[in-house]
Amino acid sequence: MSTLEPGRPSPEHFLNLIRRQERGRLKVYLGSAAGVGKTYSMLREGQRLKKQGVDVAIGIVETHGRVETAEQLGDLEIIPPVVIEYRGVTLREMDLDGILARRPTVCLVDELAHTNAPGSRHGKRYQDVEELLRVGIHVITTVNIQHLESLYDEVERVTGVKVKERLPDSVLGEADQIVNVDISAEDLLERLNAGKVYPPERAERALENFFTSANLTRLREFTLAEMAHLIDRRTRRTEADRSQASATERVMVGMSSRSPNAPALMRKAARLADRLNAPWYAVYIQTPAEDLTRIDAATQRVLGKNLELAQQLGGIPMTFRGKDVASTISAFAHEYGIKVIIVGKTNQPWHRRLLRGSILEQILNQSEGVDVMVVDV
């Protein structure tokens, strides 16, 4: 058997290129908030493509009564939505099967983070889009920055709003093209006051809550920072593909069934690993006290949800057994070549820390050559 020559791409690399060729392309219009012009921009592009002879159809669009946006629909074909009755409410959802049967070259899909009605094939619209991409349909879509899963805690801290509809960062990370639809907070507030975003009664509520100048400015900063990061990561990924280099950093976050802030801790880990271009592990530390026979069903469900969230965030969920938390984390770090360990602030009683040293001190003593980060979540 012959070996590959140094620097020559592997067969797996070639297979990935083939798959990317067969897969549809994804373009995302990203904005800092509702009303910045994402849907308008998406429809404008759809019109331009149609004039160039491209087969374009609208999978789903929400104009929210905005006149300027509605005008951009023009003569674009709209694939009729599916009407679903749920608990006495009539819901309109994108007709995934209808789009697959119609098979346009480009499909316009608004509000990527949308949660589908119960009974739909997929729970989230981004999963519908992934199915369209798999069969070779190109998709142009829209999303706001606050819907990124890893930003959930930061958005809540800044705005006081718990964003219910979220999507994994990896969806944005895999996009072939991202366009930032950017306007200043002052211009957006002016649009809101002019009735170009919401009807008067809804605009008034928005101004009192989410749409404050401070909130909009901070969300805009999030968007610009995310765009800068995505551009940088794409550059690094291209360079890595050329050199066939692999990530040298590996990140882990350890958790127990009683970790109160596990989701926030994992979101921090996901963002750090993403910026290091590194794989990361969410490790359930199963000590004798954490044996599944000793924790109740409700706690087990929470643990399961946390491990599922880790997977959604692009992490590798794992269970690792050991006699105590610190030595088990250190053993995992040694076995898997971890370079960064992320832990939250401890709630361990002071008298236990005095007798045995804190878990953090124990990890530091047992994990030579590894960076340990303590985050406040």
From TrEMBL:
GO BP term, example: monoatomic ion transmembrane transport
CDD domains: USP_KdpD-like (cd01987)
Pfam families: KdpD, Usp
Residue span(s) of domain UspA: 249-375
Protein name per UniProt: Osmosensitive K+ channel His kinase sensor
Gene Ontology cellular component list: cytoplasm; plasma membrane
GO molecular function, one term: phosphorelay sensor kinase activity
Keywords for the protein's UniProt record, in alphabetical order: Ion channel, Ion transport, Kinase, Transferase, Transport, Two-component regulatory system
